[in-house]
Amino acid sequence: MRYLSVQVFSAALLAGVVLLTGCGKPREGITLAGSTAFQPFAEKLADQYMTTHPEVAITIQGGGSALGIQSALSGAAQVGMADLVKLPKEAAALKSIVVARDGIAAVVNPANGITGLTLEQVRGIFGGTIKNWKEVGGADHAISVISREAGSGTRSSFEQIIGGVTLTGDALIQDSNGTIRETVANDAHAIGYLSHGLINEKIKPVTVDGVSCTEKDIMAGGYKLVRPVFLVYKADVSPACQAFLDYLLSAEAQELLHTNGLIKAK
Fold this sequence. Notes:
The chain is of the alpha/beta class. The chain has helices at residues 6-21, 39-52, 65-74, 119-127, 153-162, 177-185, 215-219, 239-248, 251-259; strands spanning 28-34, 56-63, 79-82, 95-108, 116-117, 144-148, 172-174, 190-195, 204-205, 207-208, 226-233, 263-264.
């Protein structure tokens, strides 16, 4: 998806809207694109909203935070989803809201005996200066580093927060939080990072500087790998789109996000 031009991406979104509105009473199309970490949560919110608002058809696309911002700027999508510590300069031309907050968990395979790392060790592993688990108290085996692609909001936020790191050339690149989860789940010597809302029994989050990536520790300010989830859009979005954006900040939507593993916006 990240290699698609804006023109091709726009055509794909338009085709999706036509498909949804092509039979029966026409519905107004709303498109969101961007963060693959937030994508499954946006899909749940869209499904919930459409049950009570059958007059709209909401299409959710991934592609990464950079593409989300680009799509909102170009008009390929009405709303861009970006999970970044800070929005880039080009997003200044757009309006923005924070719809949720999200922790970034460093995760390993459950078979890995490591339960915690320091921030310095995380920096060393992903930067390639620490290459064997025995260097951080684990088994004598090479570390398999799993990372997101350039343009990913999760990767950008992760690297910005841990600071001073250039990703090791040995890293295996994955294009979504879901594929990172599956890769780590299938490699006993792997380490990756993903949205804490996507942690399941297939992987094991490790503490960072002794603090867990849990809602309690995130809310208390102890866990540092946290980023906001932005929605960006032009000031002249349709009334239907603005109504959906307003819904996303409602108590109902915020509780749905919270139930599914994210931190409420406020």
